[in-house]
Specification:
Number of domains: 1
Number of strands: 4
Oligomer: single chain
Structural class: alpha+beta
Mean pLDDT: 92
Distance between the termini: 27 Å
Number of helices: 2
Length: about 90
């Protein structure tokens, strides 16, 4: 089944009361990368569900990170903002 780009969603879910996080995705690129992590680090990453177009994975929420943006010029920042809000 071919999904539109819009339908190829990825959702990460976690809360303050648990140590684990869940990632649900319908994006083939994300699935390929997560499958590689499951194969290489099966003691950390686990695939928990699968259907015809999506997979769900569990992993430690400590592996989620938030990063500062790289230093970019004003022109690059303006272009990124225009692309973001399309």
């Amino acid at each position: 089944m071919n999904l539109t780009r819009y339908e190829q969603e990825t959702v990460v879910n976690y809360n303050a009361g648990e140590k684990g996080a869940t990632l649900y995705t319908r994006d083939k690129t994300v699935i390929r990368k997560r499958d590689a992590l499951v194969a290489g680090f099966h003691d950390i990453y686990r695939q928990t569900e699968q259907d015809g177009v999506s997979k769900t994975y569990d992993f430690p929420k400590s592996f989620i990170s938030y990063r500062k943006p790289r230093a970019v010029s004003a022109e690059q920042r303006s272009r990124q903002e225009r692309e973001w809000y399309r």
